Amino acid sequence: MTNSPEELSSSAPQRIAQALPEGVRLPLKHVAALAEAHGDAIYLVGGFVRDALLGIPQKDIDLTVIGDGVILAKMLAAELGTEVEVADRFGTATVSLSGGLDLDFVTARKESYPAPGALPVVQPGTLEDDLARRDFTINALAVPLTLKGFGQLVDQHGGVADLVARLVRVLHPHSFEDDPTRIFRAVRYAERLSFKIERDTLELMLRAVRDGALATLSTERAVRELLLIMEEPRAEAMLATLDRLGVLSSVHPGLAWAYPPGRIRLVDEERLTPGQRRDAYLATIAAEYARDPEEVEALARWLRLPSPLVRLMRDAAVLAGLWPRLGEEGLKPSDVYSLLNGLDDAALQAYRRLEALKANTVGWARFEEFMSRTRGLKTHLTGDYLRALGIKEGPVYKEAMKALHNAVLDGAVTGRTEEEEFLRGWLRERGLPEES
After folding, report:
1. DSSP-assigned letters across all residues of 135-168
2. pLDDT tens-digit profile of 173-211?
3. Which of these, 40, 45, 137, 328, could form a disulfide with 35 (CB 3.0-4.6 Å)?
4. So what's the pLDDT on residue 1?
5. pTM (2 d.p.)
6. Terminal-residue alpha carbon distance, the chain
7. Closest to 186 measured CA to CA, from 196, 173, 174, 178
8. Which residues of the chain have pLDDT under 50?
């Protein structure tokens, strides 16, 4: 990045052109032609402009239309023969392109907040209105899109200067009162971009937290922001900052991130999907918050998480309580299977991604053996074999097959022939000779 805001501003059109993914160049030409024919002005805005100026690859592209963004999006989708998703309330539409690319259209608007933390009331506005409603200066940047290419950068709030200074700054003093979700986003952008939160902005965040701004948010909106943070590659630092600012305890009194920096590292984090990262951090919070599965389940339900994530947190708490036992002396594979079998798969997979658990080397080795080998191990024989021997059906079937399964898990029995010998011997010991 250049050393001065002036240099960065002047090079913006070229940087934008270079940053465009190949699959979006032609659709943007169509958009420019449609906008001109329709008498609309159209701008690239927000995150794509910010990241292009920082040299960060970005797939999704936000477009603000001075006119009707939804109509323009529908016209483009019809011309390209692709799908469009519309949210009429906010005048937004998303056109899906090949290669997982999206064009997000927004009708330029101004917003007002009827009450702190409420969703905004939206009405059409100018470009100036649309940029003024943004969360941070670095996201209030726009570049006009025309048939000839890109025009000069529009920067009405000092966003370029903050990009150069690597600062996250709000546009006005009531920003966090109007929309407390911006507190989460300030932390997310700062950590993701390796920026600092500007001093006055940090003071406004602390004041908003202290004055109970987060209580004006619905649980769903607060938790949605928290889950988005958990999907980020630097989520650990973000969660630590939110805890330090008092945000987590404002969402729920028992919610905390008690780990020192660097304590929680994820195995092969760069390869994980956002959902896998989220699951690992939820499991970590569940394990630390309380090892009482019912208490953790109550927390997850209070947070109104979907059922799969409630199960994940509950069983992550169960696993936290079982983990020390995995390192105990003399534990056989069948004992490990008995401890871990039936736990939620997402919880097990989440634990598998926590680097710190490897400190319990014996326990980790047993856990890995369960995950990679014994969890899916099956015997050759089933209850049909007992039936063929003439054994009357009843509890003995379950007992016999469990004994066989344990013997196979522990390596005492291998192959079908040995399984048959084991079952016949087990039955004879219990006075149950086969009839045929």
Report:
1. SBGGG-EEEEEETTEE-PPEESSSHHHHHHHTEE
2. 999 999 999 999 999 999 999 999 999 999 999 999 999
3. 40
4. 61
5. 0.88
6. 83
7. 196
8. 436
Amino acid occupying residue 176: F
| DSSP H or E run through 38 | helix 22-38
Integer Cα distance of 325 and 341 in angstroms: 14
Task: Please report, to the nearest 10 degrees, the dihedral formed by the alpha carbons of residues 140, 146, 152, 154 taken in order.
Answer: -20
| Contact predicate 93/85, CB 8 Å | yes
Is the CB of residue 283 less than 8 Å from the CB of residue 347? yes
Q: Which pLDDT score is estimated for 436?
A: 42
Report the C-alpha gap between 367 and 349 in whole angstroms.
11
pLDDT digit string, tens, across residues 394-436: 999 999 999 999 999 999 999 999 999 999 999 999 887 655 4
Residue 425 in tokens? 């011997």
Q: 402 in helix, strand or coil?
A: helix
Q: Work out the number of other CB atoms within 10 angstroms of the CB of residue 104.
A: 20
